């Protein structure tokens, strides 16, 4: 699913050339619904007429993140990263030395005021006790190529110290730009690092890699679809086959969230895949999944029932328009989506718009017409699950509010049975959320508050199932 938890690896893009006062360090705090706060720092410098900037996220221990381009026009400051679908627009106020504006990502917006000068209290990143502190196994940095796209994927191969593994697992990240650790920077969690460490200690070799265009991998992430990411995953499988020291290993795939729809794509066309594991993977048409996801997130944020119903009715129309018009050009589709959204939003009560103008909301529609989204919203997991013949383990948590466990696990089961696959296990883990943390409500706002990265019940279930193959 297009993650609400998309990694906050920020690339800044600002416009214009305002006066000298914009250069400097700018501090702000995002107040995320549910009680979570995220501190941000922009370091803007000026050389001649050229601006440049770096970004810090102290809560996550991320500092000095590079940016593409920084410019300023008049009093208007715009910080934008199309690849990660976020934008900050603000007005610089020289008299108060503040930038007052709005941070937007996906369909949500938050006010963000930036002030110049160091804040009085230091921010300390929260500890994550499951991050490995020692590595009693072999680690190898690798690079392999996807010949279809011509991109190179960089990753890490881990092997038990005794080299006696009989199985190797390729990890496939969820949606949004992810590195090989599936790092969720704004929440300071690295799920795939934890999974890889646990599985390797249990005698299972693991290959994990940076998404295309992320970390040390090449390629263009923002123009890629799930089908392209499936090609990258298949390239990882072929890399394993190409190595004489790995040829005898049984190859499996484990995908989380969107990775849980990519794994069946690969397994359905590559009969050499011996098993797959779906962590919070989709089992129902994505239109249906997204309607439920949005409704659950709105409910957890305290939205009134009437607002949830209005949102669902509009989203259903937008999803259908996108999925049923694959032949429209980007410009044609945008025009039709914008027209639909204007027509719908004009009938909304002001409270539903959360102090945003209709124009501001409609401007966010560009995310809905990207190549990735057009492929994603029209996707039906059954098209591939019915063709998967290898053993399957599908897990989800009962408090997953992004991929509803009841509906999606049932959908996976029904598709596998329809295709004649009897070698599967469906597991619902009580009290776990989309990240497989022990949760209270399943709200995205809890992700950062929970020290645990992956609950031991999930780790143990997966390793035991693999070692029983």
Per-chain topology:
Elements: E1 24-32, E2 36-47, E3 50-57, E4 62-66, E5 76-81, E6 86-93, E7 98-105, E8 108-116, E9 137-146, E10 151-160, E11 167-172, H1 191-201, E12 205-209, H2 226-242, E13 250-256, H3 259-269, E14 275-279, H4 286-300, H5 305-323, H6 330-345, H7 350-353, H8 358-363, H9 371-377, H10 382-385, E15 392-397, H11 405-418, E16 424-429, H12 456-467
Helix pairs in contact: 2-3, 4-5, 5-6
Descriptive overview:
With about 475 residues, the chain is of the alpha/beta class. The protein has helices spanning about 190-200, 225-240, 260-270, 285-300, 305-325, 330-345, 350-355, 360-365, 370-375, 380-385, 405-420, 455-465; strands at about 25-30, 35-45, 50-55, 60-65, 75-80, 85-95, 100-105, 110-115, 135-145, 150-160, 165-170, 205-210, 250-255, 275-280, 390-395, 425-430. It has three domains: about 20-115, Beta Barrel (Lipocalin), CATH 2.40.128.120; about 135-285 and about 380-465, Alpha/Beta hydrolase fold, catalytic domain (Rossmann fold), CATH 3.40.50; about 285-375, no CATH class. It contains twelve helices and 16 strands. Residues about 1-20 and about 120-125 have low confidence and may be disordered.
């Amino acid at each position: 699913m297009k993650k609400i938890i998309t990694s906050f690896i920020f690339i800044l893009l600002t416009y214009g050339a305002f006066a000298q006062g914009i250069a400097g360090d700018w501090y702000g705090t995002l107040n995320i619904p549910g009680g979570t706060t995220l501190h941000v720092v922009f370091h803007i410098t000026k050389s001649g007429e050229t601006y440049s900037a770096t970004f810090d996220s102290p809560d996550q221990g991320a500092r000095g993140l590079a940016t593409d381009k920084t410019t300023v026009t008049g009093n208007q400051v715009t910080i934008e990263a199309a690849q990660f679908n976020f934008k900050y627009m603000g007005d610089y106020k020289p008299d108060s030395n503040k930038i007052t504006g709005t941070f937007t990502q996906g369909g949500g917006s938050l006010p963000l005021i930036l002030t110049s000068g160091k804040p009085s209290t230091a921010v300390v990143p929260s500890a994550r006790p499951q991050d490995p502190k020692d590595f009693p196994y072999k680690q190898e940095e690798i690079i392999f190529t996807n010949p279809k796209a011509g991109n190179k994927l960089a990753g890490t191969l881990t092997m038990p110290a005794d080299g006696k593994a009989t199985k190797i697992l390729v990890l496939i990240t969820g949606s949004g730009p992810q590195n090989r650790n599936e790092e969720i920077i704004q929440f300071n969690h690295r799920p795939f690092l934890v999974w890889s460490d646990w599985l390797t200690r249990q005698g299972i070799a693991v290959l994990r890699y940076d998404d295309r265009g992320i970390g040390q991998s090449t390629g263009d992430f923002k123009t890629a679809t799930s089908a392209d990411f499936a090609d990258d995953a298949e390239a990882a499988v072929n890399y394993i086959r190409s190595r004489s020291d790995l040829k005898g290993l049984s190859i499996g795939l484990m995908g989380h969230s969107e990775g849980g729809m990519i794994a069946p794509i690969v397994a359905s066309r590559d009969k050499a895949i011996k098993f797959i594991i779906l962590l919070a993977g989709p089992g129902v048409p994505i239109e249906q999944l997204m309607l439920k996801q949005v409704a659950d997130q709105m409910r957890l944020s305290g939205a009134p029932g009437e607002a949830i119903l209005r949102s669902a009715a509009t989203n259903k129309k937008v999803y259908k328009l996108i999925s049923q018009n694959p032949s429209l050009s980007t410009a044609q589709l945008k025009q039709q989506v914008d027209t639909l959204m204007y027509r719908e939003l004009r009938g909304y009560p002001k409270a539903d718009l959360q102090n945003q103008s209709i124009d501001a909301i409609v401007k966010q529609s560009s995310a809905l017409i990207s190549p990735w989204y057009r492929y994603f919203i029209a996707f039906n997991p059954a098209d591939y699950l019915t063709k998967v013949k290898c053993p399957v383990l599908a897990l989800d948590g009962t408090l997953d509010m992004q991929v509803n466990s009841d509906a999606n696990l049932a959908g996976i089961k029904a598709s596998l049975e329809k295709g004649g696959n009897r070698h599967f296990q469906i597991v619902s883990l009580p009290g776990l959320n989309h990240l497989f943390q022990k949760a209270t409500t399943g709200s995205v706002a809890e992700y950062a508050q929970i020290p645990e990265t992956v609950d031991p019940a999930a780790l143990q279930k997966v390793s035991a199932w693999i070692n029983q193959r």
